[in-house]
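Please fill in the sequence for the structure shown.

STRUCTURE ENCODING:
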């Protein structure tokens, strides 16, 4: 059996990828106040077009789906027009880009939402977490529990955003089911105390995720829809009483749906993941039969290993892609990597965004 390398092409859903070094979704807080992408975003994404696939930064599906300052949306015509320039620039540079569709649920603050709106969540349980607002970091606001009517509206908001992503020229979409945001809040029982068809049993808690996938599948073929999950539940004050049982069932369901991929946050860089967490991630991995993207603290060597051993089909890199627009070429040639500067991750201008250097011709090794 031949072993795959990071630099082998891959068939992912309906799409051919030239390599398996993918760019993870990265929140950069440089969008305009109306949710249109900032002017530099076109350069930023086009610089990174050598990725096997770019997944866009998390992009809100509606005004009530927003939870941080200066994140982009994909619900208005102006936003889709802004994104069309970016997808065009990525395609012109030879790349592929999916739009990550995002609803933050309770991880928000009233100052970021339409006048008079509270964050919305499965249950009225405030997150013990902070979000970033015009006044700096603030505690998340008290959410209200969504009515069944409101859930229907949100499912429609996903379909509408999926349509806008198609109009904007994206190659596909990734449903953000990870990191303690709305869909994860429905999945996990620390945040979901509902007693209707969306709460209680694992099947009920999975219902919204399934309906959202069905809804975006009215616009996109299954082979152009990915899903991101984070079974370790490390972000956004999320918790579940039996996470392995829950995510085993979710992975089974996603396998049966034949999506383009499952993208898993297996840990956070510098996180205190223990051997038990790693073992759970590995056991869950065995449950999923489709294209699997691993993410979370990978470097060139560990990525090559996880692909070579067949544990993953591709690896998504976050921080290394922030600092290295030509990351695939650097990994291929063993060149040195630029170090990411954490002080410019969120907000600001070109510094730490579009000014990381490419390898010079002299540094490019055959
Ligand atoms: C960092 C800062 C704000 C949001 C995620 C969308 O964790 C995010 C995010 C990351 O998925």
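FILLED IN BY: designer on duty
SEQUENCE:
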């Amino acid at each position: 059996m031949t072993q795959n390398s990071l630099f082998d092409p891959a068939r992912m859903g309906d799409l051919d990828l030239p390599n398996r070094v993918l760019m993870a979704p990265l929140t950069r807080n440089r969008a305009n106040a109306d949710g249109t992408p900032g002017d530099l975003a076109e350069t930023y994404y086009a610089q990174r077009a050598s990725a096997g696939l770019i997944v866009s930064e998390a992009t809100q599906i509606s005004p009530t789906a927003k939870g941080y300052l200066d994140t982009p949306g994909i619900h208005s015509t102006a936003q889709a027009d802004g994104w069309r320039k970016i997808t065009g620039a990525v395609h012109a540079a030879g790349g592929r880009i999916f739009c990550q569709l995002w609803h933050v649920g309770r991880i928000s603050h009233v100052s970021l939402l339409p006048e008079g709106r509270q964050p919305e969540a499965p249950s009225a349980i405030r997150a013990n977490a902070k979000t970033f607002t015009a006044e700096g970091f603030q505690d998340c606001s008290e959410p209200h529990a969504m009515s069944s009517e409101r859930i229907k509206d949100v499912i429609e908001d996903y379909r509408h955003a999926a349509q806008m992503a198609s109009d904007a020229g994206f190659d596909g979409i990734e449903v953000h089911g990870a990191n303690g945001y709305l869909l994860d809040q429905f999945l996990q029982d620390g945040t979901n105390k509902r007693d209707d068809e969306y709460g209680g049993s694992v099947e009920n808690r999975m219902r919204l995720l399934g309906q959202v996938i069905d809804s975006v599948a009215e616009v996109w073929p299954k082979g152009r829809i990915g899903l991101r999950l984070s079974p370790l539940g490390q972000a956004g004050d999320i918790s579940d009483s039996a996470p392995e049982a829950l995510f085993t069932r979710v992975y089974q369901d996603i396998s049966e749906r034949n999506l383009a991929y499952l993208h898993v946050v297996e840990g956070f860089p510098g996180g205190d993941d223990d051997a038990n967490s790693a073992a759970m991630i590995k056991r869950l991995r065995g449950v999923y039969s489709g294209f699997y993207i691993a993410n979370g603290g990978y470097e060139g060597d560990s990525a090559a290993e996880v692909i070579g051993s067949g544990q993953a089909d591709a690896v998504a890199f976050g921080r290394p892609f922030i600092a290295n627009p030509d990351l695939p070429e650097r990994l291929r040639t063993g060149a040195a990597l630029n170090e990411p500067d954490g002080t410019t991750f969120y907000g600001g201008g070109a510094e730490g965004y579009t000014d990381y250097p490419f390898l010079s011709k002299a540094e490019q090794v055959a």
